[in-house]
Amino acid sequence: MAYPVVQTAVCACSFGAAPAPLTVTSQPTVKICGMAAATIMDGTMANLPSFGMCSCPSNPAVIAATAAAAGVFTPAPCAPAAVSWAPGCPTVQVCKLQLLNNSSKLMCSYGGVIQVSATPALLVNVP
Fold this sequence. Notes:
Oligomer: single chain
């Protein structure tokens, strides 16, 4: 079962060294469990958090750091480059955008897969 993602949900990247909280900026009005509901536009390039150090071999910063270390693989600071989450929740719209759920994935242009590892909104009672 997929759960809705809300403000402060914890995200992780497959090539990142540390998890990071998601900041909801796509809409300020709809709340779930008292926290802003996330949409597929949250966590895009404008507001995606850093995951510490990136170890993706196709990241230009990692390539440069490795070259500077005479070919010894060297991680570099994470600067994610992603567009939007997929698939989202096609049946639930929040301010005309698809609701983000914890089964959605976000592909980083460098090769990492970003996903929600924990969301505060685990249970929503609908009358």
